[in-house]
Amino acid sequence: MFSVRSLIVFIPLLISVSFLFGQTYSLEAIKSAPFPSELVSARVGNKIAWAMDEKGLRNIYVAEGPDFKPRKLTNYAEDDGQEITSISITNNGKWVVFVRGGDHGSNFDGLKPVNPAGKTNPTPVQVWQIPFQGGPLRFISDGDEPSISPINDVVVFIKDGQPWVSKLDTVMNDEFLEIPVPVLKTRGQVSQVKWSPDGSKLAFVANRGDHSFIGWLAYGSNQISWLDPSFSKDSSPRWSPDGKNIAFIRTPATGGSVDSLTLRKRIEWSIRTVALTGEPSKLIWSAPKSYRGSLPTTQGGTNLFWAQNDRITFTSYQDGWPHLYSVPASGGTPLLLTPGDFMVEHVSLGHDGKYLLFDANTGPDALDKDRRHIARVSVDKADMKVLSPGNGNEWTAISVDDHAGYVYIGSSPQKPPQIMVSQGNGSAKSLTADLIPKEYPSNALVEPKQVILKSLDGLTLHGQIFDNSNGTQKKPAIIFIHGGPPRQMLLGWHYSDYYSNAYAVNQYLANLGFVVLSINYRLGIGYGYEFQNPKAAGPLGASEYLDIKAAGEWLAQQSFVDPKKIGLYGGSYGGYLTALGLGRDSKLFAAGVDIHGVHDWANQIKAEEPTDDLHKAPDAEWAANLSFRSSPVSAVATWTSPALLIHADDDRNVPFSQSIDMVNRLLKKKVAIETMVIVDDTHHWMKFSNTLKVFNATANYLKAKLAK
Questions:
Q1: How many domains does the chain have?
Q2: What is the pLDDT of residues 631-651, one digit of tens each?
Q3: pTM: predicted TM-score of the whole model, two decimal places
Q4: CATH code, domain carrying 100
Q5: Of the residues 157, 182, 207, which one is the last residue of a structural domain?
Q6: What is the pLDDT of residues 286-310, one digit of tens each?
Q7: Which range marks the domain in which residue 163 is found?
Q8: Which H or E run contains 625?
Q9: Domain presence at residue 428
Q10: Are the C-beta atoms of residues 518 and 448 closer than 8 Å to each other?
Q11: Strand 475-481 to strand 515-520: parallel, antiparallel, or no bridges (unpaired)?
C-alpha cells in the first residue's frame, strides 16, 4: 500500500458539516471507537495481550483466562503517532515485550523515527518490556523484531541490522545489571531470528542484497554455521519440533541480464529442509512452473510452518486461490487443506502444532465472499470448519491453550472491532465492549449492501454500497477506491486500521446524504489469481481503470443517483485511480479527493532502470512510454474537474514529490485545485488528530463540490 502534526496549506472552502438530509453524528464520534491490533497469546496458559488505539492513545492491554478480564498494562497518554508492534509474552507469562515507534507498514525508511507530534528529539524505534501483572516499563534498547527465548530469560532483537541480546529477568532497582550485547556480526542485514524449540540455538537470515543465506549458531557460542549456501535467496527459517532440522524458502537471486519490463513474470520458489550437520539441503516441494505457482503475495506470504506429525504447511496460489497445503517433511505430494473458491489470511499455528487457525472469505452465506470468518483445519487432513459464521467480519485468531480455545478480533457492520474469546458451541464473548465510548453512533450506522456489476470489458466486480435513504430521490454519489492494490473492502469494518478509517468515512458520508460505492477493482484480493493478476494493469496499461469508470457509469444509471454529481476519493493506489478518473473522465466525475496518490509511473521506471545502454531492458523505451500513458500526468490536458490533493511530507510509501509534480501541472493548466499538506506524518496517518483533519477535509470538500 502506498500512508501528520500539521501545517496545512488548504485553499478556501471548508464549510459547515450538515447538508442534504441532515447530520446525525460527527466523524469524531464514529472514530471514537478503539481499534485493536497485534493480538498474541502465551504458549503456556491462557494469557493474551494486544495493542489498542484509543483516539491516538496507543497502549497494551492484557487478559488472562478463564475470565479474560482486560487490564490496561501501559499508560501512554499522548497522541504522538508512535505505533506499538511486535508484542510477545514469555512462555512463563511473566513479561510482555514490545516495540514502540517507526512505521512498519512503509515501503522504505520504516525504522526511522516518526515525528508527527513535532518533538525536538524524535523517538527512535525501541524495544521495551513490562511485567504481565503490571509494573514499571523497562527500556531494553533501540531496535526492532524482538524474539523471546522459549526458556524466557533472554530476548534477541535487531539493532543496526545485526542481532543483539538482552536478559529479561536480570534487573535491580528497575535498572539492568547488564547492557544488551551483540549476538554476532556478519555482512549484510540480519533478520528473521528464530529460537530453536529448546532455546539452545538461533537461526537467522543474512540478506546481502542480491542473495541471502540462512545461518545458525548455538546460543552463547562465537561460531556461525551457514546452511547450504547457494546462488539464491533463502528466507523464512522454521525449526523442526526436535530442533535438528530447519525448513526454509528458496527463491532465485537477483542479477544476470536485464529482463523485459512489460512481460508477465513469475517468481519461482521452493521449500527445502536442511540438517544442522552440514549436508546439502533437501528439496521438499517446488512450486509449479506456472503463473499461479508464483511466490504468493497475500497476507503472510508463504505462511510456512513446521507442524506436528512431521508436516510442513504453506500457502500457494497454484489452484487459483491462496490456499493452505501440507506436505510430509520427507517430501511428497502436497495435500490441499482448504479447497474452494476463497482465500485464506492471518494464518497461525495452534500451540499444539496440530491445526491452523485463519480467516477466509467463505461461509454459509453467499455474501461471505465479501467478509472474513475464522476457520480451522488440521495440519494433516482437509477437515476445514468455519467457526464464526454470521454477518460480521472476524480475523487474527490465535490459540490460547493446547486444545480448541482461541481468541480473535471481531466486528459487525455497526459494532467496531473488539477482542473476542470463543465460548464453545459457536458463541463468543467480547472482552472490550466496555471500552466503546457512548458517543459511538452504533445505531445510526447503515449496513452496507453487496453490489455486483460488470466492468467495461465484462469482468465481474464486487462492491459495497452505503446509503441511508429509501432511494426515492436523486442524491450525489461518491466512489471510494481502496489502495494496495492487493486489498479487498468488506461488508463491514476492515481488519486494517488504514481501511477501518475508510469504512468510517464511508459511513460518515452516507450519514451526510451521499450514496457511497466502495468498488473492489481488479488487482485486488479475494476473487482469485486471475483477478489479482490481470493483464495490462498498473503502469502496463491501467486496465483496472475500466472498473472505476464502469462503477461511475453504473451509478449514473441508478434512479437514486444524480448523474451530474458523482465524485471520487481514495488514498495511495486509490489516489492514483482517483486522479486517473478526474483526468480521463471529468465529464463523468465532477470532483474528487486524491490522497497521496501515484501520479507518474514513468519516474519510477526511470529510477529503477540502469542508465547505460548495455544493461537496459530490451523494451525500456516502450515501457517508459506505456507507463507514462498509464499515469494521471498523461491526462492533465483533459482534466477539468476540481480536486483536493492531500499528502504528508514524510510519506514512506509514495514520495511527496509525486504530488508536487501533479500540483504544479494542474496549476499551470489552471485546474481548480485545493491542497492540504500534513507535516511530518507518514502514509498511514500515525497521529489521530491528523486522521480527523484529513478526512473531515475530504468530506467537507466533497460536500462543497457535489451538494450544491
A1: 2
A2: 999 999 999 999 999 999 999
A3: 0.93
A4: 2.120.10.30
A5: 182
A6: 999 999 999 998 889 999 999 999 9
A7: 34-182
A8: helix 620-629
A9: no
A10: yes
A11: parallel
